[in-house]
Amino acid sequence: MIALKIWILFLGYAVPMVVSPGPGNTVLATAGGRFGVTGTLPFWFGFEMANLVLSGVYGAGLGKVLQGHSQIEIVLKWAGIAYLLYLAWGFFRPASGSEKDGERRSRLRVKDGFLAVMLNPKIHSMILVMFSQFLDPAKSLPTQIVQLSAAFLIVCVVCHFPWIYGGQLILRRFRSARAMRVQGWVFGTSMILVAGYVALT
């Protein structure tokens, strides 16, 4: 069992890291603004499932193997940038047919959420650091990995919801055809700016 003081330290690390602005939260807020909380559920589910998968992978020790290979982080970074630009293109793409048909085609799916996390070097680093700091080699590793992974998933769900809901609250009231076109340009531009930020950091 993980000691209470470790849980306090874990929350002090995980909450600020997960809730702070970054590429992942920007995409979640954008999805919430475009599709609402309900329409974002598939993307959000994929997003959190990827966090859980990465927790299992890094917790099981893959992080130690990858630490000596900085080129993997570079590949992830540029793949993530390419994926953000792909998402931007989806927001810019003019809808043919009805507005509802166009929105349905551009809706983010489970695989989009999963890829958004898997191609985000910040999330890889955050989870790697989490396990390197809070795993106690003197105690049962599988039990700690399960506990930390479950706690991290809970922190992610709780901290990501305000971003999605905030995007919906601010932007979903603007639903005219013109407002939707403007939103598409704003969201697409946001994705390009996030990609630029990732490229320069």
From TrEMBL:
<protein>
    <recommendedName>
        <fullName>LysE family translocator</fullName>
    </recommendedName>
</protein>
<dbReference type="Pfam" id="PF01810">
    <property type="entry name" value="LysE"/>
</dbReference>
<dbReference type="GO" id="GO:0015171">
    <property type="term" value="F:amino acid transmembrane transporter activity"/>
</dbReference>
<dbReference type="GO" id="GO:0005886">
    <property type="term" value="C:plasma membrane"/>
</dbReference>
<keyword id="KW-0472">Membrane</keyword>
<keyword id="KW-1003">Cell membrane</keyword>
<feature type="transmembrane region" description="Helical">
    <location>
        <begin position="147"/>
        <end position="170"/>
    </location>
</feature>
<keyword id="KW-0812">Transmembrane</keyword>
<feature type="transmembrane region" description="Helical">
    <location>
        <begin position="113"/>
        <end position="135"/>
    </location>
</feature>
<feature type="transmembrane region" description="Helical">
    <location>
        <begin position="41"/>
        <end position="62"/>
    </location>
</feature>
<feature type="transmembrane region" description="Helical">
    <location>
        <begin position="74"/>
        <end position="92"/>
    </location>
</feature>
<keyword id="KW-1133">Transmembrane helix</keyword>
<feature type="transmembrane region" description="Helical">
    <location>
        <begin position="182"/>
        <end position="200"/>
    </location>
</feature>
<dbReference type="InterPro" id="IPR001123">
    <property type="entry name" value="LeuE-type"/>
</dbReference>
<feature type="transmembrane region" description="Helical">
    <location>
        <begin position="6"/>
        <end position="29"/>
    </location>
</feature>
